[in-house]
Specification:
mainly beta; 2 helices; Immunoglobulin-like; 15 strands
Length: about 200
């Protein structure tokens, strides 16, 4: 099995191969240096925001795009994780999808209201669009509905939730736990957590 592990905020994420669901020894590591969020409306061009650490850990600071969205618009929203230091780029998203029962992407921040974020006046409303083999959300595909109002921050978190002693850590209550008590109350650990600024424009 594989296990994703994020090292520092806004730095490189590492992917370490683990020999068991309960966290055995780990082998060689790979990196996630690019996170792409794509917002696709029913009509019009997609809007893409990218977090990218182009030269790897310890070099220049990552670049972070602002998310610019239109009020009154619904966006099909996808999240992609890559190692673009490899040629061709390695699709870490596939690892997350294959082990969806151990991973969940959370949308929080001042700009977001949804399962994991209690911000009733926020401009963005998030709902999950995909599920794992157990019917629980993953968060690689989503829906974002944009209302008029101020922007803010969208915090995107990829959480690794492996079983502990055979007991599942990922449950239907995971997003509610984050919403009510934060990530410290949730099992597992963050694989990646990045913050995108959000701006809302009139249609």
């Amino acid at each position: 099995m594989t296990k994703l592990a994020f090292t520092l905020p806004l730095a490189l994420a590492t992917l370490a191969a683990a020999c068991s669901d309960d966290g055995g020894t780990t082998n060689a590591e790979e990196v996630i240096n690019t996170i792409t969020v794509t917002f696709t409306p029913a009509a019009g061009a997609p809007r893409v925001a990218v977090w990218n650490d182009a030269d790897g850990d310890g070099g220049a600071a990552p670049t972070i795009d602002s998310i610019g969205l239109l009020a009154g618009t619904t966006y099909a929203t996808t999240v992609r994780f890559q190692n673009t230091l490899e040629a061709p780029p390695e699709e870490i998203t596939d690892e997350v999808s294959d082990e969806g029962d151990q991973h969940q992407v959370f949308f929080t921040g001042t700009a977001v209201n949804g399962p994991a974020s209690n911000q009733p006046t926020a401009a963005l409303t998030h709902t999950y669009g995909d599920v794992d083999v157990g019917g629980l959300p993953i968060g690689l595909t989503n829906t974002i509905v944009v209302a008029s109002g101020a922007g803010g921050d969208l915090v995107l978190t990829l959480r690794h939730l492996p079983p502990v002693n055979g007991t599942p850590v990922k449950t239907a209550a995971a997003a509610m736990t984050v919403r009510d008590s934060g990530f410290t109350a949730l099992g597992g650990e963050n694989d990646a957590q990045v913050t995108f600024p959000v701006a809302i424009a009139a249609p």
